[in-house]
What we know:
This protein is of the alpha+beta class. The protein has helices at 3-47, 56-68, 72-78, 81-90, 93-113, 123-143, 150-161, 166-185, 187-209, 224-235, 265-275, and strands spanning 214-220, 240-245, 252-261, 280-286. Helix content is 65%, strand content 10%. Strands 2-3-1-4 form a four-stranded antiparallel sheet. β2 and β3 form a beta hairpin. α2 runs parallel beside α8 (166-185) and α10 (224-235) crosses α11 (265-275).
Amino acid sequence: MEYSEMMEYSEKTKKTHRKATKANLAKRILLIIFGACMVGIGLELFLVPNNIIDGGIVGISIILSHLTGVKLGLFLFFLNVPFLIIGYKQIGKTFTLSTLLGVLVMSVSTTFLHEVPVVTEDPFLSAVFGGIILGIGVGLVIRYGGSLDGTEIVAIVFNKKLPFSVGETVMFFNIFILGSAGFVFGWEQAMYSLIAYFIAYKMIDITMLGLDESYVAWIISDKHEEIGEALLARLGRGVTYLNGEGAYTGEDKKVIFCVITRLEEAKLKAVIEDIDDGAFLAVGSINNVKGGNFKKRDVH
């Protein structure tokens, strides 16, 4: 390839990369905006009118808005600003800008939706459906690189300096915030708030991980080749043979490594039991699978 052709090829590659980067950035921005709007809907059309709160800065903002009469959106934005400054210094520019976008959209959406009639006045239905909508919205924002709550930023910073996980720190904050709802709105509303928080927490997980959660399987058997061929033929899954050694016996063992979907777990167990019902099998969930030939498949 001549020099001029190499330069032309390089420029084409750079342009393609820039287009892909811009497309990914646009997708990220749109989904953060969409997620933040969903949070606004969950708050203003379900939770807030029924005196049900969420955890974190959102929960504090709902309580302060109720006590002072000041619009919720103002508290949501200004209470998060100090944490955004901390996030910019400690975590990074991209995360902080994504969080700023999400918080700003959430704050504006709650302001515009404040006068929209509430969907339901039933506190249980509000807790359930408000929690679902809120959780999906928060999950989308987190999945695409942002956050909607300053307590999560504090938890990430504390995690670097203290022997507590991010989840433990967030839970510590939320125990006090959700508990305070009992003194402000009554203990029945505090219990509904706990239901909404739990549902939102689970929906965040589902949104971030997806419904087709992936699993990794480790199989140890003397019939490893037969099992590997069966998994390839009957599940359509590739396998990798790893070298292992029994600590007690000192015997060399082959470990079969395989990635499957949640729907394929039962089929995997059946295949192994048909060949070697004494095989060792360990299955665990994993957050993300990328690269290789792994694809979601239908279970036959």
